[in-house]
Amino acid sequence: MPDIPRLNKAPAATFAALTDADLARLQALLDALPAPLEPLDLSAIDGYLCGTLLQPQPVPPARWLHRIVDAEGRALPADFDATELHALVQRRHDELDRAIAARRWFDPWLADAGDEAAPTDAVLPWAAGFALATELFPALLAIDDAALVEPLALLYMHFDRADLEDADALLAVIDTLEPPADLAEAAEDIVRAVLLMADVSRPRRAARPPARAPRRAAAKRHQRR
Fold first, then answer.
1. What CA–CA distance (Å, rounded) separates 182 from 108?
2. Which residue of 8, 29, 153, 180 pairs with 119 in a disulfide if CB–CB is 3.0 to 4.6 A?
3. Measured over all CA atoms, what is the biggest interatomic distance in the chain, rounded to whole angstroms?
4. Helix, strand or coil, per DSSP, at residue 124
5. What is the CA radius of gyration of the chain?
6. Model-level pTM?
7. What is the mean pLDDT of residues 103-108?
């Protein structure tokens, strides 16, 4: 199995994350969307937002937000007020953005697949949302860096192998991985994968060295001595 580092869970962030009540409200707003719109479910939204945030260049809301309310990108009816829905999704987007930028733990929104379901059943909607983002915004997967293969394998291992075409390198790594034993391990795999990909697509800038005084100013100080 590849040597993929484990995560230390940092304390909760100080900004306002979505509460259980917020999630219930977001779900109600999604349920209220009229046909034929087919909105992403909560878990898929979370994966989609992460896939969007991992792009090497920021993706403006005008390009990603409309896919939340319909996976096909169909427009909302002119008389439908999506202000609250968009605001809740934007809050989660900003929360994830801060966590990724700081390489900090976040709690993925995983589907409730039932007590007897395998962790893969809970992860699949999240991974599907992530895959949708990488399909719409291909710059992440276009990066030619072998360091992306292992974290991608942690996510794509939950898909049927037949759906992974022309992905020999990815499948080779997937073959070395063991499925998560439970939801806690599945969540850790997701966060670890996202943060490892961020190291490639959104590298953290090294601290700048202290600025040096211009030579002319330094020379004047020397003359005054």
1. 14
2. 180
3. 81
4. helix
5. 21
6. 0.84
7. 96
